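In response to reviewer comment 3 from the previous cycle, which asked for concrete evidence that the modeling workflow produces usable outputs, we include below a single protein chain processed end to end. The sequence was submitted unchanged, and the resulting structure tokens are shown without manual editing.
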Amino acid sequence: MNQYDPKFSQFNLSGVGCWLTFLATCLLLGSVGLGWVVNGFFILVALAILTPVIGWLGFRWWLRRNLVEDKCPVCASEFTGFNGTNCRCPNCGEPLKVEGGRFLRLTPPGTIDVDAVEVQVQQIED
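The workflow returned the following structure tokens.
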């Protein structure tokens, strides 16, 4: 037999059979009255695609609202924390609470927190 005979040709249709079977099954279910099965399948596929996208956008929105970046009131090192939580400064170890987008010192009740102010001394000449 001659391999180069133009009368014989071969087609590679290995993937077409699977798609034809799927299409025939969808058409058969639609014609019999089981279209709800096909519609349910397509709804599940749409939910599987849309749920991660909506979850990712929701997570980014929540993170923008609750992530606080500020300086420590004790050592002035900048770091991040979540709004409404207690944390420690990674630099000095001071316990802090995050309120209103700022870091505040976490002190026991009754403690008076005082900020020291340096005053320049002027000499009075006689």
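Helices lie at 16-32, 35-66. We consider this sufficient to address the reviewer's concern, and the full set will be provided in the supplementary archive.
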